[in-house]
Amino acid sequence: MIIGTMGAKTIGGVSNIGRFARFARQSMFASLRSCISPCTYPLIWTQMNIIGVRSVPVVMITGAFVGMTLAVQAYDQLAGMGLEEHLGVLINISVVKELGPVLAAVMLAGRIGGALTAELGTMNVTEQIDAIRSMGTDPIRYLAAPRVLACLLLTPILIIYADLMGIIGGYLVSVVQLGINSRAYWQFSATHVELWDVSIGVIKGIFFGVALSVISCYKGFTCKEGAHGVGQACTEAFVASFISILALDFALAVIFKSIYNTFWPLKSLV
Amino acid sequence: MNEGDKENEVQAVNGDGIIVLKNITKKFGANVVLDNVSLTVEKGKTTVVIGPSGCGKTVLIKHLILLLRPTFGEVYFKGRRIDNLRERHLNKIRTHYGFLFQGGALFDSLSVMENIIFPIRQHCEITDWEKVEDLVKAKLAMVGLDGYQNYYPAKLSGGQRKRVALARAIALNPEVILYDEPTTGLDPIRADIINELILKLQRELNVTSVVVTHDMTSAYKVADRIIMLHKGKIIADGDADYIRNHPHPTVQHFINGQVEDDDLAVIRMSINVSQAQFLPRDFEQ
Q1: CB contact B119 to A (< 8 Å)
Q2: Is there a contact between B105 and A133 if contact means CB atoms under 8 Å apart?
Q3: Domain extents for chain A?
Q4: Residues B65, B95: contact at Cβ < 8 Å?
Q5: What distance in Å separates residue A68's CA from the closest CA in chain B?
Q6: Tens of pLDDT along B141-179?
Q7: In what order do the strands lie in the sheet with B31-42?
Q8: How far is CA B74 from the centre of its chain?
Q9: Which residues of A touch B122 (CB under 8 A)?
């Protein structure tokens, strides 16, 4: 009995992973086709407006608070060692490499992911997705691809906004509130924060954007019937997006570190 | 497939059948919804599928356009087997169909006009927008809703939504129109408007129609042929008179709207049980 239940759950889990992988593959191919099909540009443009433009304020607020909090938390430790002028290095590297991208992506998973899943889930339970199929149109191409493309293109840009606000927030708290010398703050930051660090954060944004959009669209497309089904799909979409953002962050950190060590072996020793 | 095989395949199906289902079985997990169902939908006729809720009517109609794929069995459209086609090939075949969904399934975010233009936009290159607007006007006039172009679905009544959905379903001049419970949730007058529209479309466009319903008034009015589905199997198949006089008790109970004796016994028993269980505490004492 127990073995049977475990077996059924395992088979169900593997089937779900298979279905998701198939959906992700179809979404990616549909997105590529949409890139070369001008008739889909208006759909992508609409989604870019909904997903990107309207997310700018929340992402900027998130970034600003990340920078400000880092400054407050790290100051005492560095001041204890007489290194308070290096505070800018710590804040800015943390913001552009890790906290900015991750927290901005988590914020987007909550704001966009939930909305995407709820919208597509409602379309699914009211048979609108079936209606699209019945009219000979691929719903993945019409609904999922523009959303995936919009997230892929705009998440890195939103991360740049988050980084910018994180840097400004950290600077204001460090210099205005904690009294660190402004010139020293920027000088140390400019010496230690490289273009590579900023690029890592932005590249991570591409992966985070794809992950959260594909997961949210998949949950919407496979949502169960009723209000409970849509609510459950939204919750699952957020949880899955959150975990995948953290997992991707770890995997990308390992990969980028290996790349850095390969191309700049001496720098990594320093 | 060579030409000889193709010919054999075409001959294997009924000559008048525009859509043919052969030995279709559909399972959801362990639940068998359709059990070895075979059906030939005749060209230019209106076939009505009746049966109690949950008997598999909607699942059956979705197999005709392959919105659901059979677990076993084959589906043919104009003599060509289509259940083994990939989605992108099926999409071309689906342009020959119009589908009226139970709730209309209009796109909430689009106006009536944009809803009707949707299939045209997907499959035709629009160069002359005036022509498209005239076409939308003509389609809406057919369902008696000209002038509603700029309304959004949320502002329409249930009957109007179904009529707009019907206008959208005929936007590409389909050969087959599938109606899933077209009169459900409508008052008798609005339901009759839909029935008249089904007849009108068949008369004027000479389309093949398949209507899934449990509304017998509607079934008798629009049907050239009625099929009764019960527990995933076809138990009756014939014209309205044949169905009216069918000897099968389940058919008679269904068309006369009478509950069967077994079900009645269960209902009575459950009433007794519920009274025994839910007596207020004070009252029991």
Answers
A1: yes
A2: no
A3: 2-269
A4: no
A5: 40
A6: 888 888 899 999 999 988 899 899 999 999 998 999 999
A7: B31-42, B17-28, B72-77, B80-81
A8: 19
A9: 135-137, 142
- ipTM, two decimals, is 0.84
CA B169, B174, B179, B183 dihedral sign is positive
Beta carbons within 10 angstroms of residue A190's beta carbon: 12
pLDDT tens, residue by residue, B213-245: 988 999 999 999 999 999 899 999 999 999 999
Cβ pair B103:A127 closer than 8 A: yes
Question: SS3 for A168?
Answer: helix
| CA gap A42, A39 in Å, rounded | 7
Is the whole model's pTM more than 0.80, yes or no? Answer: yes
Q: Which residues of A touch B105 (CB under 8 A)?
A: 126-128, 130-131
Q: Which chain A residues touch B92 with a CB distance below 8 Å?
A: 136
Q: What is the mean pLDDT of chain A?
A: 90
| pLDDT for position B278 | 58
Backbone conformation region of residue B147, classed left if phi is above 0, alpha if psi is from -120 to 50, else beta: left
Structure tokens at B252: 């008679």
* CB-CB contact of A230 with A237 (8 Å): no
How close does chain A come to B77, measured CA to CA in Å?
Answer: 15
CA B229 to chain centre: 13
Q: Which of B97, B101, B106 sits opposite A130 (nearest CB)?
A: B101
Min Cα distance B126 → chain A (Å) is 11
Instruction: List chain B residues with CB under 8 Å of A142.
Output: 122
